[in-house]
Amino acid sequence: MHECGCMRFTLDARFVFSRSMEDARGRLGELLEGANADLLLRGVSRDVEDREGQGAQVVSWDIEDSTILLHIVSGPIVRAHDAVLRLRKYLGQELGKDLKAGIRQVVIDSYSATFELPSEPKVPLKIPFASELRVEGRVCTLVLRDVSDEIIEGNAIDRMIRRLISKAQAQDYQGKTEFWELMESHGQGKAIWDREPTDEMVERGWLKQALQRESGSSGRRPQQ
Question: Which end of the chain is more exposed for a tag (fewer CB within 10 A), N or C?
């Protein structure tokens, strides 16, 4: 995966227990403080600058009757969905032992992933199951809502991110292939060209023409 330091994840989760957790505030605070200092940083080298920013952190939490509400942010190494799985096991064990309370359900209300694409898409990107998809330049934000356990446990979010990056790469490669074909059709050879093909295609208006030609000849939109 094309990873960078700007990759960020934000997640809102609800852990639903078998009984009221209102009397567990003190113990829960201790457990989450410990998790932020250790559990959610495991896998991040101690020598890494901004270690917390590369791992995950529970930045706020609350209790509503039998439900623990967690707001988690993370970087690229320990991702927010991985943090949920770690916390589910950790809190289930510790609170089950201390308070005889078990986790009945984990609900992900919203999850957003912001990451950098290898190039700015030429046509809008699409992917199944996304509640929202925003692209500004090369920065893509994927938003999911009401995320199921299967999505979290099956690493589907990582696959969705890889798919979007692949789609952006495919558009870039397609555009540059069209560029060289157009250059040759205009009597110019590859060896003498020293500019960025995509930029030159935009200036000459060839990119739009190439996409229109592809759409018209195939009867479908160009591959995203």
Answer: N
Fold observed for domain 8-167? Alpha-Beta Plaits (3.30.70)
3-state SS string for 138-186: CEEEEEEEEECHHHHHCCHHHHHHHHHHHHHHHHHHHHHHHHHHHHHHC
| Residue ranges of domains in the chain | 8-167, 171-218
Query: What is the C-alpha to C-alpha distance for residues 32 and 89, in angstroms, rounded to an integer?
Result: 13
**What tokens were used for 119?**
């190039």
Read off the pTM: 0.74
User: In this predicted model, what pLDDT tens digit does every residue of 6-29 receive, in sequence order?
Assistant: 799 999 999 999 999 999 999 999
**Distance separating alpha carbons of residues 215 and 169, to the nearest angstrom:** 19
Residues with Cβ within 8 Å of 30's Cβ and at least 6 positions away in sequence, in order, are: none
